[in-house]
């Protein structure tokens, strides 16, 4: 969830700038360094002073990054005068998540009801994998129930690869505008959720743009990863009936299953994007200041469960909530539909290894 990127860059097989654990790749008009070793990836992600995700001046569109990802990628290394990071740490504490879990269970149950009403052949992505994380973000932020349908439409369009980039730019602006209005509302009357609590704690010191930007980042980071893991995870389980049967027979396996899916699926694609702030080295190879550095979580098949959510300052604060949703959703789906099976071919998106499922018709 720390920035995910578009199509996986192509290896520059002919270039001399290669070392074990590091490869020069073609990406956009220039190139980037692809970090292969687990220890090297950890070192990069845990050193924001040398490897920053402030990508101001980088042509993100030219790198295949959608507009919904720009603010997400550019946010983590900036100053935090309003203390939002500290506030967010409390929002995702064990106690807060324990209190939120019953609502996550309720949302999952409501969406499974919708799947059941749709009948065999229903698209699991449209009725379950996409709505669940969006509604959880609504619950987290305190979006009023009357506004949630419109919020969902914008959120799903924002993360739909079939939606033109220009429209997604508009959707980012619309979501930020809505959340800014929610901040204004919270200044005059009680509003639940994160927005209401932040306004109550910080009052006029809290800028509406800070909160609206935060809300969009939480939506993109949390919604995108959870929806991708749900879609790809169900697709993987349907392709491996033995694993599906084992999880259905013993839901206590879900914690291990979620960690293995995070490790195996590689939903972050080419992974975290960083820029070198000074001349440095990775794996003994000089990396000049200004060069882009990519940390793909699946480069050696190890520690994806850790790296999928970033490290250090860049670690996604909503990672615990993402895990709660996944641990609730998988066993609930299999309990509701014990004879779950594919009702047609899935539509996968993303170059190379799939990064998401766009359509997943199911039957039972």
TrEMBL record:
SUPFAM superfamilies per UniProt: Cytochrome P450
Residue span of region Disordered: 1-21
Record field: transmembrane: none
InterPro entries: Cyt_P450_B (IPR002397), Cyt_P450_sf (IPR036396)
Gene3D superfamilies: Cytochrome P450
Gene Ontology MF, one: oxidoreductase activity, acting on paired donors, with incorporation or reduction of molecular oxygen
Family: Belongs to the cytochrome P450 family.
Designated name of the protein: Cytochrome
